[in-house]
Design goal:
By secondary structure, this protein is of the alpha/beta class. The longest helix has 19 residues. The relative contact order is 0.11. The N terminus and C terminus are likely disordered.
Length: 300
């Protein structure tokens, strides 16, 4: 059901949401291929409206994406295109605090606006992954499905409306758990960041310049790679030799659509030898090159 757009965020209208949440599903690897969208508004910790729509992506459905969300050409037959729902989406998100679980949804909406020649949606974005990482830093995963289970939420993963509801409740519960209000969550964390680890003088990754997808540059994975001789860089660039996809990356099976992965793909297409590897595979490689206990004692 399409709900008429309410007033912008920070309005005195008592019915206006404090924030809205958006989630999209895509038909293929092109992030502009939105085939389903869900939007939920929250005020005072409660849902005040919900909007969902199937969308004709004007693109192909890949078997990979269909296996994830279950949608195919038959589901979007006679459904509106993104151009047809742009006004409704902009009415719900424009001028408001808009939550998404990772920046995938923001980039997908921007890409769809470009492809369909519609104005960009002007919102104040808040990443619920970052909020969850600050609120519950000890959780082994901050993916939406893991958070829903931890928080005891009813959740159908990769259904746009259900994902939007779950991400909204992550914000609500984080505010309750930490006492940090919505305005404060929009500000960068005040804590001082730990320094980026320096690469060891020698090791199996000596000479590698590694960017991380879904892990902090000063976190445990970065430290392990630096101890193996790698230099951990801030982002994927022409001198990057490897992109490591962290186990806890927030994109799930859609990690290939993340900005870092897309940039690595562009560089590879241009002839760069940059490698793309998963965290577990690289850690196994490092472990296989480490000397055994007996070898270490013999060399001592």
């Amino acid at each position: 059901m399409i709900v008429p757009a309410a007033a912008p965020a920070f309005s005195s209208d008592p019915a206006a949401p404090d924030f809205v949440v958006v989630d999209v599903e895509t038909a293929c690897a092109r992030v502009s291929s939105i085939c389903q969208i869900g939007i939920v508004g929250y005020r005072a910790g409660r849902e005040v409206f919900a909007y969902e729509s199937l969308v004709d992506p004007c693109d192909e459905f890949s078997p990979f994406n269909t296996r994830i969300h279950g949608l195919c050409e038959d589901h979007v037959m006679n459904q509106p295109t993104f151009a047809g729902i742009h006004a409704a989406v902009d009415g719900h998100l424009g001028g408001r605090i808009t939550v998404a679980h990772s920046l995938f949804d923001k980039s997908a909406l921007a890409a769809a606006c470009r492809v369909h020649e519609k104005p960009m949606i002007d919102a104040t974005w808040l990443d619920s992954v970052r909020v969850a990482q600050r609120a519950w830093p000890d959780l082994p995963s901050h993916r939406l499905s893991a958070l829903a289970k931890f928080l005891g939420l009813r959740h159908k993963h990769h259904d746009a409306l259900s994902d939007a509801r779950a991400a909204g409740m992550v914000i609500v519960r984080a505010i309750e758990h930490t006492g940090i209000d919505l305005a404060a969550w929009l500000k960068p964390a005040a804590t001082r960041a730990s320094p980026v680890p320096r690469p060891a003088a020698d090791g199996p990754l000596k000479g590698e310049r590694i960017a991380l997808l879904g892990a902090k540059r000063n976190g445990a994975l970065a430290l392990t790679l630096a101890q193996a001789g790698a230099r951990v860089v801030a982002s994927v660039g022409p001198t990057t030799t490897m992109l490591v996809v962290a186990n806890d990356q927030p994109y799930g099976r859609f990690f290939h659509a993340s900005p870092a992965h897309r940039r690595a793909d562009e560089l590879r297409a241009a002839g760069s030898p940059i490698a793309i590897v998963r965290e577990d595979d690289l850690l196994q490689r490092i472990a296989s090159t480490a000397p055994s206990a007996g070898e270490a004692r013999a060399s001592a």
